[in-house]
């Protein structure tokens, strides 16, 4: 099977090397390893130039805010048409974007179109504030999603949303959550990892890995760290990543006198993440209540590395993870509950070990990228009736 994968992504705080395409890199790599032909059309970021195992066609984009997505849409569509002259795709797969050009390209080439929705297509849409821009985005989402052959979503909540709001037939939607590479993210000796990354070997570390956005709940984590330090003064916090709130967080840490117990690791290559997770004792995912639908790669990575996790019990997380899968759930935005849950784990080595084993087993059984890719291909192999629209001659 031949795949064209389109994936526009932009992070305003780190335009030189965004990390939001990890899931699609993993999907492309797994498809290629299974013998499929895969061509990915990403923006020309540093991470796109480093990918191996499949074909990439990095798309240059203009830096101005309004022109950036337009430049990607036009140039990636042209690149797709040129590449299709030599290699016609069977599947055009794309991460949701406001531009419907992957759908139009698929129809032109006679390929099936699959759209992946990993968040609300129009996140700022509200019935009380119907600006022209929002109405246009909502119309584009309804137009494109209802005409795609299949729609992949990350959570049950997103499935309900695309069916109810965007008129997608339920049988054309599949929930395919995030996962992890269980051959790369593996349990390692914590003391050995700490030595390799320059940390104190015999100290307990609380770890967070991800982009520093407000919805990650890192402000709540710093408040919890104040409580943790009162009881366990030797505990250290590892913050691996970077983002729009890093300055605010450092100012907060300074006000709370926490700088001596925090290591700001910064943004690192994804292949180095397992070693930093391996250096931790407990990992955290303190999402805010308003995070919305998510299937966080970080939690699967934590569990694959054999680390117990404390995470906010937002609906999409609570629907997937439990204590029996290696994750202790706490109310979001509650720094006292977060601190207590972390301290309980730090003080109970036997519970840490049980949760570590359960978490690793959980991801091995159903959340490796290989397993999820197989599920996607099996689902696509099932024939469905063609979509009929009044404008079928156009689409």
Helix/strand layout:
Elements: E1 2-6, H1 22-33, E2 37-41, H2 46-49, E3 55-56, H3 67-84, E4 91-95, H4 101-109, E5 112-117, H5 132-145, E6 150-153, H6 156-166, E7 173-175, H7 190-197, E8 205-209, H8 218-231, E9 236-240, H9 246-255, E10 262-266, H10 273-278, E11 282-285, H11 297-304, E12 309-312, H12 315-318, E13 327-330, H13 335-346, H14 349-366, H15 369-381
Parallel strand pairs: 1-2, 1-4, 2-3, 4-5, 5-6, 6-7, 8-9, 8-11, 9-10, 11-12, 12-13
Describe this structure in words.
This protein is α/β, with parallel strands linked by helices and 395 residues long. Helices cover 41% and strands 14% of the residues. Helix 3 runs parallel beside helix 4, helix 8 crosses helix 13 and helix 11 crosses helix 14. The chain is globular, with a radius of gyration of 22 Å.
- Mean of all residue-level pLDDT scores: 90
Provide the β-strand percentage band. Answer: 5-15%
Overall structural class, as computed from helix and strand content, comes to: alpha/beta
The Rg value, from CA coordinates, equals 22 Å
Number of E-type strands: 13
CATH superfamily descriptor of the largest domain: Glycogen Phosphorylase B
Strand order of the largest sheet: 3-2-1-4-5-6-7
What is the count of structural domains?
2
